[in-house]
Design goal:
elongated, 69 residues, single chain, mainly alpha, 4 helices
Length: 69
């Protein structure tokens, strides 16, 4: 299958290089395994001021008088 995962290599990396138990290996997401193997994810590497402002606008803190969730 073209573009698929190289399962034998991933299993070797997870079980031997990272010394994970099989249940730990299979519980990982592909991005978690990639990060553990030292591969940086695609996309921005840090939060910018604009990104932070967008998050604050989208998810404002609750009004202390209204209580929190």
């Amino acid at each position: 299958m073209s573009g698929g995962f190289d399962w034998p290599a991933l299993l070797r990396a997870g079980l031997y290089q990272l010394q994970l138990r099989p249940d730990q290996f299979w519980a990982l997401t592909p991005i978690e395994l990639s990060l553990m193997l030292g591969h940086a994810p695609d996309g921005p590497s840090k939060m910018t001021r604009n990104t932070l402002q967008d998050l604050i606008a989208t998810y404002p803190d609750a009004n202390p008088q209204e209580g929190s969730i």
